[in-house]
Amino acid sequence: GHRNMATASAVALTYVLTLVWFAWKAPLRPIPRWSIVLSMLLPVAVLDIKGCQGDLVPIVGLRWEAPQDYHLATKLESAKDATTPVDLKTTTPRDYPRFLGADGRAHVSNVRLDRDWQAHPPREVWRRAIGAGWSGFAVVGDYAVTQEQRGDDEAVACYRLATGEPLWLHTNPDRQDTPLGGVGPQATPTIDHGVVFTYGSIRWLNALDGATGKPLWTVDVVKEFNAEQPDWGRSCSPLIVGDTVVVSIGGTNQALMAFDRQTGKPVWKAASGKPSYASPIMARFGGVPQIVMLHQTSVTGHDPHDGRVLWTFDWPGLGMKVCQPIALDEERMVLASGYGYGAMLVSVQRDGETWTLEQRWESSQLNPKFMNPLVVGEHLYGFDDGVAMTCLDLATGKRTWKKGRYGHGQLLQVGDLFVVQTEPGDVVLVEPNPKELRELGRFSPLSDRTWNNPVVVGEYLLVRNDREAACYRLTVVPQP
Questions:
Q1: Do β-strands 138-140 and 342-351 pair in parallel, antiparallel, or remain unpaired?
Q2: Which of 79, 110, 118, 453 is most open to solvent, judged by the fewest CB atoms within 10 Å of its CB?
């Protein structure tokens, strides 16, 4: 990424200097000289940077082209008045109700996929245009909910899983648009007991009636708490703990806050620090259930009842942190990030009220920028800075292999296999193996930059990016 930024800067500087030379120094007559200057200015007049890839390669488009989500703002407006009854209270074992699934670890344990995609290829069920954003889907029953950008509004949209039919739409007035981070909300909704909890990219924390999409309560965290804004927008998915909704806010003594799930009133706030792009998780260390939150320069463990800080692990640095902490067991935690941080194994020890956290090993060979690594057995799998999949031995931190080209994609474990969502849009079936990369199948459901997490519920695979969403039927086999 740094190399690409340096290259882009060098190209821009060369372009400007060449333009100046032609305008003032080129040994040409005035008419041909200024004709060349005007032709060189033409690309600047008609082209604009519309975003970038995960490795910071610019995406260029026509300056006058309106973003697709502005067209969707009116095209799907009728979904606001949908009267189709939606049941998000009736749960099923296959549900994927929040970011990274029911267990928050990107692991679907109740589905076993057929390994032969040549003989039994994924079959498209539906496809539709969708608003911008990097939110994933949360699925309960036959309903899938995600966040999108629709023009000048952030939207929460509910679709029928089997058909893609829009059922309801809730909007808040906000638009996050940055050249590097892209457009739209990034956090995945959380569905709990028929209520949809969402956190927008700038300010809005919502509790929505799952049947209609109508707000039960809304909190403007910037207006009410002067919440600190991450550079590329909030990416924190709400965590439900008992009767509270826990999210990252940012600031002094309020880096993490809990709100009453019925009223939206603040219950507790704790810790200080700038927010990261991760979400709070539930973990158990030293026999104590706790909320673990990654901040920009530290990781903290909190008492779920009052938010009291149990321990703090300092992790300083100027780069952004995105990946979720991974609680391996009651004594070990994995931290990983791109931007040169790498991966590390941290030991978590408790002696009464005293907590001791120490780094056991650190590796510069796995830098997952904004994907979440997965643990299988005693090995850690992830994408090293968008270059290739990498496998580390958890006992030593040593790399066992590095191979493949998936860009800045995402990983989902389904049974004993990985479903890999690549950044260019392909989906790849991979068998995790500590000795080598084993690809079993591949197909192309999307054809553009894809940073969103894939979802598997039963036989359905849901994928989306900032332009479209698609649902595919996978062949599943009986559980052993």
A1: unpaired
A2: 118
Cβ contact 76:378 at 8 Å: no
Are 162 and 125 within 8 A, CB to CB?
yes
Listed residue (291, 226, 280) closest to 253, CA to CA: 226
Q: What is the pLDDT of residues 246-260, one digit of tens each?
A: 999 999 999 999 999
pLDDT, one tens digit per residue, over 43-57 is 777 767 767 777 767
Q: Which residue has the tokens 């991450």?
A: 230
- DSSP code, position 214: -
User: d(Cα 67, Cα 450) in Å, to the nearest integer?
Assistant: 16
Query: Considering only CA atoms, which of 277, 272, 274, 189 is closest in space to residue 233?
Result: 277
Q: Which two three-digit tokens encode residue 187?
A: 């956090």
What is the full DSSP assignment across 15-73? HHHHHHHHHHT-SS-HHHHHHHHHHHHHHHHHEEEEEE-TT--EEEEETTPPPHHHHHH
Neighbours of 68 (CB within 10 A): 17
Tens-digit pLDDT profile for residues 408-464: 999 999 999 999 999 999 999 999 999 999 999 999 999 989 999 999 999 999 999
Q: What type of residue sits at position 310? A: L
Measured distance CA(474)–CA(480) in Å, rounded: 18
Helix crossing, 30-46 with 2-24: angle to 10°?
Answer: 150
Residues contacting residue 39 through CB under 8 Å, at least 6 positions apart: none
State the pLDDT at residue 290: 98
How many CB atoms lie under 10 A from the CB of residue 116? 12
Contact 306, 269 (CB under 8 A): no
CB neighbours (10 Å) of residue 9? 10
DSSP 156-208: EEEEETTT--EEEEEEEE---EETTTEES--PPPEEETTEEEEE-SSSEEEEE
Give phi and psi for 477, each to the nearest 5: -120, 160
- Report pLDDT for 121: 97
In 3D space, the residue among 453, 451, 404 whose CA is nearest the CA of residue 430 turns out to be 404
In the block, residue with structure tokens 């889907």: 137
pTM of the prediction? 0.91
**Pick from 156, 196, 202, 161: which is nearest to 183 by CA?**
202
Separation CA 342–CA 14 (nearest Å): 34
Q: What is the mean pLDDT of residues 176-180?
A: 83
Residues 6 or more apart whose Cβ sits within 8 Å of residue 440: 115, 116, 117, 417, 429, 430, 431
Phi, psi values for residue 15, rounded to 5°: -60, -45
